[in-house]
Design goal:
Blueprint (H helix, E strand, L loop, with lengths): L19 H5 L19 E2 L10 E2 L5 H4 L23 H9 L6 H17 L3 H34 L6
Antiparallel strand pairs: 1-2
Helix pairs in contact: 3-4, 4-5
Length: 164
């Protein structure tokens, strides 16, 4: 103002909100600012979004010029799907392979169960789900056919064909 007295305070000239280099730098590493007169207290930055101490002198961001030529570093976070939800039917396959191996269907089910485990380790969720469906199908088929054959054997042992 022309009168020389303190005028209305202007907006603080702090670093922009999106300048990562200015916000992330700890206050101890920032350059010491020039000593401010008591009348310039109103120009202190009181932003709550700034990390570090909230009363820093308003200094224009030196990175705003560099920002146009620099590319901002990016962080890539890979989120893997939860593969623990895919059931591999391993114990069922082992039981079918040992006890109910009807026409080697229990062996085929065991092979697919092992493929599911391998694909889960490789984070191939789609392949693991498809092989789990196939292992379940072979387990169901092997269990059903072997159970049917065991029931037929008991029926024919109880009622031999010579009675008919």
């Amino acid at each position: 103002p022309p009168g020389g007295g303190p005028g209305p305070p202007g907006p603080p000239q702090g670093p922009p909100q999106d300048c990562f280099a200015c916000i992330a730098k700890p206050p101890a590493l920032q350059q010491a600012s020039p000593v401010l007169s008591p009348s310039s207290d109103v120009y202190l930055m009181e932003s709550k979004s700034c990390k570090g101490d909230s009363l820093r002198p308003a200094v224009p961001c030196k990175h705003s010029v560099e920002k146009k030529t620099m590319t901002n570093p990016t962080t890539v976070i890979e989120i893997y799907p939860d593969t623990t939800e895919v059931n591999d039917y391993y114990l069922w396959s082992i039981f079918n392979f040992v006890y109910l191996n009807f026409c080697c269907l229990g062996f085929i089910a065991l092979a697919y169960s092992l493929k599911v485990r391998d694909k889960k380790l490789l984070n191939d969720l789609n392949g693991a789900v498809e092989d789990a469906k196939t292992a379940r199908l072979f387990n169901i088929t092997s269990s059903a056919l072997a159970t049917f054959c065991i029931i037929l054997i008991f029926i024919f042992l109880r009622y031999p064909l010579t009675d008919y």
